[in-house]
Amino acid sequence: MKKKIALVGCTGNIGKQTVRIVRENPERFSFSALLSGRDEEGLSALTKEFSPRFSHCAARGELSDSELDALFSDCDVALIAAGGFAGLRYTLSAIRAGKTVALANKESLVCGGEIVTALAKKKGVEIVPVDSEHSALFQALSFRRDTPFERLVLTASGGPFFRLSKEELTKVTAKDALAHPTWNMGKKITIDSATLLNKGYEVIEAKWLYNADFSRIEAIVHPESIVHSLVYFEDGAAIAQLAYPDMRLPIQLALTYPERLPCLEQLDLAKLGALHFYPFPQEKFPCFGLAIEAGKAGGIAPTLLNGAGEEAVAAFLNGRIGFMQIAETIQGVLDKIPNRKADCFETLKEADFKAKELAKNLIYG
């Protein structure tokens, strides 16, 4: 029987790769629902090709509660690939509908980790990670979140600026930052990878996915992006997951696990040669430290971090601020808006709005 997928974010980077997987495995998968952000033309083409029971473009307006119910009513798995804070609402709705969630939206756990994981536990819903790093941890833990471990290690390519000095970082442009050395991603996440804010987000995600204290999660730089993450165990062993940097593997595995289907070319270790690992350069990339501080603070702090980051990255891409001002904008928002308990989605939505408004004021005056 085909597995029916509700794909939120069908015309984005992850969405397009998911469509490719479904297209290549028509006997295994179908789309019950497709939702795009702004690409009406792309959504129309996909709707014509796959004939889902439900399709919608978010640019037409926010879905009502009944429409959200329809979005997830007929699926086996909800793949949440929408970008930004908006993805959290879809994740919560899919969990309320009792659907397995294949999660590619970082903000769902960065901003709403406590709410999302509590609701998933209550509903008996499984959250399967789509991020390459968290998929790697999931595999190393034998697809179990209760596997005992000593330490989780997330690898980072270091982005295009790993070897630059602080002075050189003040002069980089958006074009420079978008030239990621190993991954092909959307603009927002590519900039977050250049500032290493993305790795801070992933540390916060790991806390919620694997119920790990921040003291047991670390990041290292691995420029080749072959080792996608690793887990250390009490006996001194470490298990890593290796593959060429291609998001099709973690996307497909989230849809098929524990079964594996053909996907990527197998690694040629002799041809690869040496793999390199370096300490994380936190002192040069303050966004990472800000993310860890916000994650430890909890409450609405991670939502403030993310909201400010979204506005700062947009301003950087538009040439309104410099690379190092992304961190300055985030710091300004975290300093000015008091933290408080994140007790529900509406509280987080309000914090996201306030963070973005303040960030705009700090950027544009």
Protein described:
With 365 residues, the chain is α/β, with parallel strands linked by helices. Helix content is 47%, strand content 14%. The protein contains 16 helices and ten strands. The strands form two sheets. Strands 3-2-1-4-5-6 form a six-stranded parallel β-sheet, with helices on both faces. Helix 4 links the parallel strand 4 (77-80) and strand 5 (100-103). Helix 5 (107-123) runs antiparallel to helix 14 (301-317). It is globular and about 55 Å long. The mean pLDDT is 95.
Characteristic terms for this protein:
alpha/beta; six-stranded parallel β-sheet; 365 residues; 10 strands; globular
Number of strands: 10
Lateral arrangement of strands in the main beta sheet: 3-2-1-4-5-6
Please report the number of helical segments: 16
What is the beta-strand fraction? 5-15%
Order of secondary-structure elements = EHEHEHEHEHEHEHHHHEEEHHHHHH
Provide the helix percentage. 40-55%
The Cα radius of gyration reads: 20 Å
